[in-house]
Amino acid sequence: MNRRHLLTTAAAAGLLASGCASTASPPQAAAPVLRGTGDLGVVVLRASGTLAIIDTSHRTLLGQVTGLGDLSHASVVFSRDTRYAFVFGRDGGLTKVDLLTQAIVGRVMQAGNSIGGAISADGRLVVAQNYTPGGIKAFDAQTLALVADVPAEYAPGKLSRVVGLVDLPGQRFAYSLFDAGEIRITDFSDPAHPHTTRIPNIGRQPYDALVTPNGRHYIAGLFGEDGLALVDLWQEPPKVRRILNGYGRGEQTLPVYKMPHLRGWAVAGRRAYLPAIGHHEVLVVDTESWQEVGRIPVAGQPVFVMAQPDGRQVWVNFAVPDYHRVQVIDTTTQQIVRTLEPGKAVLHMEFTPRGESVWISSRDANRVSVIDTHSFATQAVLEVDSPSGVFFTSRAARLGF
Amino acid sequence: MNRRHLLTTAAAAGLLASGCASTASPPQAAAPVLRGTGDLGVVVLRASGTLAIIDTSHRTLLGQVTGLGDLSHASVVFSRDTRYAFVFGRDGGLTKVDLLTQAIVGRVMQAGNSIGGAISADGRLVVAQNYTPGGIKAFDAQTLALVADVPAEYAPGKLSRVVGLVDLPGQRFAYSLFDAGEIRITDFSDPAHPHTTRIPNIGRQPYDALVTPNGRHYIAGLFGEDGLALVDLWQEPPKVRRILNGYGRGEQTLPVYKMPHLRGWAVAGRRAYLPAIGHHEVLVVDTESWQEVGRIPVAGQPVFVMAQPDGRQVWVNFAVPDYHRVQVIDTTTQQIVRTLEPGKAVLHMEFTPRGESVWISSRDANRVSVIDTHSFATQAVLEVDSPSGVFFTSRAARLGF
């Protein structure tokens, strides 16, 4: 089944890659318009397995692409030319969508249970991180042909669930093994023989991770104990170090309605802003000493804590029951300067490339709001069905996204 | 003459902006192919008034657009959708080039002597900085229609040459008045009534400037005396402060073969790397204290000192007679790790968005070399006539470019 999928879609993608839309567009595709792709984006419509394609210059909905399967907890990366979106579904489906023809140009069922993916800096490899079977798989970004399968085996016959996959410079990817308490770095520069570096004993149950914007520090959250595991990727060989003991699941005193997304962590100047787990606080950490330097009380349990591209403000959304609110922190004063209520069940936020606007999805309000980050005025509202993740093509130019 | 130009090109651009290429392409345009624009770029071919359009994924030359006038010291910004390049010529020509149809879609002679420009974060305003007449002018990015003319008048009837123009968040732009020793910030959010904030007495003869990647600190180099003028743009009202006394023209002991381009200054982590003026050194500065923390001996008088997107390495080129060399500094050790000789008269360098490659123009070798930033291997060589500036569409997503 997988192989048949692979061949069909590879062939299709190959044909489409040759370019001109009149010959290339599948039936469901819209009449393609010659246009730039630097201001495009997508919104995941989780309930209907649909991807909405949007234009961030005119703040409009350009079209919708259906048939992407189970998009709960879906994530998206973009091709290097910002024409294609690669959508990782929870059901193990990896779908390549052409934003110009608004059509699916490739789709493979690559695992039984998947939790996202990444794309290499040169744009040639798309890599998925999987729960079942536990491991990562690399695909040719043009054809979606399988390039390499790297099981996360940590004991004879035992495969770990993989979390926290991020791209690194070169064709390298870092990720964490939930069941093995280990961080691994796999280098695909020789795709036939991927080389994996193991960093064991990082702590129990890493549940998510991020890499700092410069690609230097990989940080994994630990579900099984206090603190976080930090790896300096510029060190040879890379070593793990425990930071922020007292942070995390272990000191938990409140029920946790939703584990924070570490990928959302904000680094502004030399400070990082972290969601406290369970507590109604955002932690402020010095990124040189990795010591906590402050805590900011907020309106609920933070889920995403995101810095504007300029680092001037940090935006926070919350777990139920406070998930109708968004708060904005001024990083020069550490004060909350605004509380917004854009609609029930705020699930995600995405900044325009230079940060003049933020797009906020409110699932239960069936709405995506575009907010001016300076005046906080609502610039546009898009009505869409149960929106969750919002992703812009400018991510293609960034490390660790 | 200017006005007639304006109307013709405005109409043309308006027509073209409506989209589909078959109706839109002027005669000289190549048959447009439906494609993404996130991996496009341009190389300025100074001698022939030509713009070469390149593809950074396949490292190929896609085409050339002629008729751009005097491109000495030309600079380029990109439209928000990364489809169009705006080219500022030394002769005051502002040309809008469609990277997809490879055609000029708008051109105005907007001044007698121009020194570059910038584009607003929302992509709506293109602003030129001019020597004659001294001041800045804002144009509609779609039509190139003049939106606002802001002369740099500093005494009755006296207009200053303008340098160091950068975009700021909002529709604001910061720039320096060479003849008045003043920094100004003009806000075009009400285009009919642009509002200008003046910061006087910053020091004699600011000759160039830059804004830090987060848009917070505006720094002008002073030709007339030692040191640099620093403005914290997040302060209300913004105030000027002198930094690095002992740096600059005043302490000059060597002949200066070419003034460094401040725009090239590298900020890596909390350190900035600055070209010493005249001396064969790169200065290392702490961006919190703005104190000098080190000097790195290099192979000549540095012109551009540029950090890789990840800040891991800083690349330096030089003034004559050392302009056939490029040196690479490791920012973790402050040591030079490689000296390259890509060809005579290295004028500019540009990194791919995630920094896996750097494109280096060697004017007298009629060559642009693509170098792997990790292995330093040459990945490709493009033969073009007298290349100078290299600019990639990923700049559209960055502040201060």
Automatic annotation (TrEMBL), chains A, B:
Signal peptide: 1-23
Keywords: Signal
Residues spanning the membrane: none
Protein name: Protein nirF
InterPro entries noted in UniProt: Cyt_cd1_C_sf (IPR003143), Haem_d1_sf (IPR011048), Host-pathogen_enzymatic-act (IPR051200), TAT_signal (IPR006311)
Pfam families per record: Cytochrom_D1
Keyword flag Signal: yes
Organism the protein comes from: Simplicispira hankyongi
